[in-house]
Amino acid sequence: MPEFNLNKSACSSCGTCVSTCTPGHLKMNTNPEVVADTMCIECGHCEAVCPEGAINISGPELEAPMVDISSKISPEDMGNYMRNRRSIRNYKKRPVPRETIEEIMDVVRFAPSGGNQQLVEWIIIEDPQKTRELAGLVIKWMEKLAEENSPFAQVLPVESLISVWKSGLDPILRGAPNLFIATAKSNEGSTPMDGTIALSYLDLLLPSFGLGSCWAGFLQMAADFEPIREFLGLKDSEVFLGALMAGYPECKFFRVPKRKKLSVRYI
Ligand SMILES: Cc1cc2nc3c(=O)[nH]c(=O)nc-3n(C[C@H](O)[C@H](O)[C@H](O)COP(=O)(O)O)c2cc1C
């Protein structure tokens, strides 16, 4: 557990840290006090929320100073940004430079996670040839399904996907130069959901870098196929949480595609 250090002379006893904290960790006396260390999820909110900067949590230094732009992004701009995000299915050949990937992933690490566990890890493919090889393994998995007459092969259009692949196109990873794969050391608690959330952060962030992405659903379905696990170097207990193809979009959208009306019940 990190140490909770309070500068009592700076503390104004406003209690904001206690009300922001997970229940049972801090309580307010004259000043905030730790009740039960076991309840701390190391979210760092107490240190980040204190108006006086009176709290210091042991461990790594605070992140770079906060730049609050929430009042500068209008709901309209944000709404348009989100409505305009599209699944990209054709990419320029050039891969995303490593520095850009690092910049992106330094934001993605702020995705929320259950209990602040931060258990999502990443495998990032930077070599378009490797992305193609991996797509080929998904096709191998599909060929196996077809051979075995698996019920999966009745649902998935495996025959047409295989024939598109044989024609030289890539219907699996769409010729994307890069692939971002979320993994975890083991499947526990909220890790599958954490993986999806982290990937959604990535998906939504990429257009701001002039990049596009698409969820790699076929790869996800084939992820337990041993040659794929081997290709990715996944250890026995490691789990594949999901993946996004990514790269510079080859085409531009001019309209927002139609979507169903929202179904919502207010109670
Ligand atoms: C879980 C998931 C898996 C997907 N898998 C694929 C895929 O394997 N190939 C593909 O071209 N698109 C895939 N998509 C993209 C969807 O087809 C796409 O999100 C949908 O058509 C809506 O388009 P939009 O994302 O541009 O709004 C996937 C999307 C999700 C959420």
From TrEMBL:
Residues 2-29, 30-60 form the 4Fe-4S ferredoxin-type domain. This is 4Fe-4S ferredoxin-type domain-containing protein. The lineage of its organism: Archaea, Methanobacteriati, Methanobacteriota, Methanomada group, Methanobacteria. It comes from Methanobacterium bryantii. Transmembrane segments: none annotated. It comes from the Archaea. Keywords: Oxidoreductase. Pfam families: Fer4_9, Nitroreductase. Belongs to the nitroreductase family. One of its GO terms (molecular function) is oxidoreductase activity. The keyword Disulfide bond does not apply.
